[in-house]
Amino acid sequence: PGVELNTEDSEAGxxxxxxxxxxxxIDCVRAMGQVQGVDWNxxxxxGDTAVMTALKKEKxxxxxVLVECPGVDLNTMDRDNKTLQQVARERNMADMIRILPSxxxxxxxxxxxxxxxxxxxxxxxxxxxxxxxGQGHLVCGDCHRTEICPTCRGxxxxxxxxxxxxxxxxx
Length: 171
Description:
By secondary structure, this protein is mainly α. It is 33% helix and 6% strand.
């Protein structure tokens, strides 16, 4: 009571959320995640929200907590117009890539970009072979040697002809 959780400091534009993330205080981040009124989406002087700061500083446990916090904008972009997913890819943070929204999700669900193979993280491209499990999860032709789906752990069943055609038609 009486504490302003969204006040920015005058030097760096940091809020208590930024400071908790920057200090690596996961317990504080968890506690703040339970408090109504915390604005996780205020950008600091560098143009980053708390979740972007956590990702850039490779504080992966904090990113995992923030991904589950209501009100955290996972479609945020930094000063260079990079999404969380793009920053994670640039830094080869495969574990973060899996939990962050894809570029297509960032674009409001308008799939302007093909999804990525969950094994090698390369984008599916037209005129290439793709394989699927019984649930419809996909892997690229280079990664099809796996007999178990990396997404659901079900058996891989064969070629994904319909998805291959979908990509060819979208050229």
